[in-house]
Amino acid sequence: MRLEDYPDNSGMATANQAPGRRTPSAATAQLFSLALKREGRLLLQMGIGKPLIAQAMLLAEEHGTTVEEELLASGDINEAIYFAALAERLGLDFMPDIDPNRVQDIAGIDTQIIRPEMLRIHHASRPPITVIVPSLSRLDEMAALLERTPPLRQSIAVSTPSAVRNAAWQAGRRRRVTATTQALFETTPLHSARITFWGKQGFYAGVMLGALVAAAITLPIVSLLMLHIVLTLFYLANFLVRFYALGCAFLQQRSGRRPPMEDETVGPLPVYSVLVALYKEESVAAQLIAALDRLDWPRSRLDIKLICEEDDVETIAALRALPLAPEYEIVLVPVHLPRTKPKALSYALPGVRGAFVTVYDAEDRPHPGQLREAHAAFMAAPERVICLQAPLIVTNARQSWLSALFAVEYAGLFRGLLPMLSLTGLPLPLGGTSNHFRTAELRHIGGWDPYNMTEDADLGMRLHRLGYRSRVILRPTFEEAPVTLPIWLGQRTRWFKGWLQTWLVLMRKPAQLARETGWPSFAVFQVLIAGMLLSSLCHPIVIGFLVYLTWMMLQDSTHVDSWLAFWLFACDIINIFGSYAVFIALGRNRMGASERRAVGRNWVYVPFYWLIMSLAAWRALLELRTNPFSWNKTPHSPVGEA
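That's the Glycosyltransferase sequence above. Prediction below.
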């Protein structure tokens, strides 16, 4: 039977055929390249059914891949059985597993975690063996070589891509994790948070603290007045930035929201990588895999890496117990300080196969079309746009007042403030998940800083100062917010500590930073990061100032400086109650009706929410001194569980 007859076979459509997938026709078969037809004939000779081959040929033509890749990605054939059959056809031994202890960590081994093709296995009592991963397209070439040189059969064996990749990961694990934790610091130490106070920063911090203490003792009234004025200005600038974002949000709402961009790319799609760092996440493993399985992207062009600490046996066991599709790979990170999410992401970065890569958290449920929109946005954007941020939407706002205000905060940030910054070309303090990157440029700028507790904000600022830009997309990622105070406080303390680290890193050479980013971006950075940190730390103090000034005015004081007191009183009113109002308005403006109903009247707790943010900021300041690289893990539960 001829291969050209496959599409006419009435039994070709299978029960598990994807919705909307085209069924090959005779006309379509004529378009198949000679290489695809040749692969099909070889697969037929190996005993693989015609319907599977025909469907794989169609997908290979559509995706720009090979029939072999599509078959392996479909999950319809077992990888080990398939490569055992290739080994038998070549007359070679098949090695389903490779002992990584017999693989030397030599130069070039990292190429095998991206494109597994060949490994050298050493034995104590016999000559080494070269393990190969044969491809169907070069099978005849390999068979001819073995026919010409029969002794080669004694020194060559066949294995699977998974086995070669796993052995390469394990063989280079120590060297790779050491490089991960040191690379950014050794190549561009100015951008690394490994040293908290750089150069004279510690000296200047000590001098300023000493001066403040001395001034408070010798000139208490003047010191309080100057502190009040400084805080007032920072608060006011922060308020105005968010008020401007609120105005932009209102204008966008009146003009009509832009629909999500559709991916109309003609031709094969690139490989897209997905990184998920997991630690003690066994409870949400099944939910995560179900969410990632729904991503609308060809399975043969997906590269999903589930990154686990190698001593996290519960999470690893939970993942291995699930029916993972061929595009999934579990990457084990050796135990090595610091034990942080950015270290895990940076460890996996050398193995990323995709031209684009995105990051998700373990509890995330990304919109199925998010990769499509991100790809379309990258294709339409200038090359210097190397990062896209998808909005994060909290879905458990009803569970507690904390999760309700968290939902309001996220709506204002990801659907209000960040779009405004993106439209004006200003730096984006990225969220910790749903960032999409051009892989080559991400590697070029050094990836994530393993020592920064908010690697997202740090990376967003770093890529901006290096001349790159970030934008936002619309298709969201859904996640759950903390519902109890201890969990919320631990997470927020880590965030504040990371923002402190980011500010210290960027302010090592302020003049250079201003030249690299431009003065408008430098000013916005100070308002968003320094202003947010200072306002959080000093929020109780500002409330105290307001109470004191109110008491003074009620006493009908007639001091010479009463005009200044009235001006400060007015600014405090605007700063405190205006900030509360814009926080609520910006978030609720970007929410849908169902989201607003879920939040209900919990917005009345905003003053208390800001006070506990101040507590988290002070805890972060203490931790930055005593334990700068500790990662306060946020526990997660499956959706619907408390």
